[in-house]
Amino acid sequence: xxxxxxxxxxxxxxxxxxxxxxxxxxxxxxxxxxxxxxxxxxxxxxxxxxxxxxxxxxxxxxxxxxxxxxxxxxxxxxxxxxxxxxxxxxxxxxxxxxxxxxxxxxxxxxxxxxxxxxxxxxxxxxxxxxxxxxxxxxxxxxxxxxxxxxxxxxxxxxxxxxxxxxxxxxxxxxxxxxxxxxxxxxxxxxxxxxxxxxxxxxxxxxxxxxxxxxxxxxxxxxxxxxxxxxxxxxxxxxxxxxxxxxxxxxxxxxxxxxxxxxxxxxxxxxxxxxxxxxxxxxxxxxxxxxxxxxxxxxxxxxxxxxxxxxxxxxxxxxxxxxxxxxxxxxx
Length: 331
Known about the structure:
Elements: H1 3-9, H2 13-41, H3 49-74, H4 82-98, H5 104-127, H6 133-152, H7 163-170, H8 179-197, H9 199-209, H10 211-216, H11 221-247, H12 258-270, H13 280-299, H14 304-330
GO molecular function, one term: transmembrane transporter activity
Protein name: Ribose ABC transporter permease
GO cellular component, one term: plasma membrane
């Protein structure tokens, strides 16, 4: 039992309930309050359908990569390679299309398979070689950065990117909704269904909750952990593909910043609706909080450095709320 849990045992039942509600719903209340405040301060620019659509569109890639990371975190591991992996896959898909003249669908399938392979490598290093996931994925991510610079010679791949590839991210093929939002909804919805509504999802949660008990129950813990890394790798690859389509180029470090954003969303989501448990819906809400916060700052002309300061503060707050939720659950 943690020190926080011991302290919670000294609180009255009413105080415990109040803390529990705060830990579960503070993020949602904060999101609603932030939207209302920005709407009041900037009624012409912020609370519009176009702006909300723009926020979802801009945040969609962060939501995809964060949703994949959530699966790795649910099984009890961390994947620090996702940002570097997304950058590499953005370069790889543009290179396959421009330099190797591969059809766009073929290039996308190859890159998604490469993302799954990287996830598999991460999973095998962690489960079979028994390297801590932080060290393993950070090392793999560093290797991926080197491969990205080697593949592109440090020069962005810009010329010759076909319009059809750009429309993958910039187009609106379904009822005028930006493609990135549709793809994000499919990915996040699919992962939510996998974790919350399938037998495999129950195994995933069991492994994250208590690996020893899961192993005694006959669950192949290593297989489930590897699956979490593979899903994380595929989502990182998809993010890299969509980012390259949005930018119209492949750049060696284009997606590196998604690492911090994804972790902030995941940990912020763990403090939402549940007592410090990681879940896909929570990650979606966490990503929305970050997206609307940045959007509001941009509307009011806040300097760029403030976004980094705020993102770091959000991550610290998210971990704190998650720890509070767990300590309350243990008490």
